[in-house]
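User: Show me a protein chain along with its predicted structure.
Assistant: Here is one chain, sequence first, then structure tokens.
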Amino acid sequence: MARAGLTPDRLTEAAADLADEVGFENVTLSALARHFGVKDASLYSHVKNLQDLRTRVAFLAGGEMIDRIAVAVAGRAGKDALAAFAGAYRAYALERPGRYAATQMRIDQSLVADAPALRRTAEITYGMLRAYGLEEPDLTDAVRLLRATFHGYCALESAGGFGAPRDVQKSWDRAVDALHVALENWPHDTP
């Protein structure tokens, strides 16, 4: 254990790097142990199990991603903020595919309250959307629309799913334009 210099943070970072190389679904404790040249059992004094490790990677990746988004949207509002948010989201998803996949996993709700990255993500996302005059329950619905659109686009793009000759960036820009129009004209929920 000491000779490998294992810590929970070091294991999490290595697992995140491994996820980017081989895919998040292929990260295992055995693969991580091989990376450090130790036996699988050596990892259990630092992480509880594979689910714990994956959750740690999800929190790490979520923090990295929202940090990028926060820098991109700083000082912006409306369409400019939306385009910056979307661009930072897409860049992270394409540059860090394994880490990005980790951000999509379902996390035990008992852990969510203690996750600063998840709170920060909600604050920045909801703050951007409030500039469109949205309040609950419309905020939640708008967040789901953005997440589904961004994730779907990134998943298709990374899989080579856009075969038409139209430039993928131009289509992305048009999708963001359409989301802006939808957010400006949001059909508010009436009781």
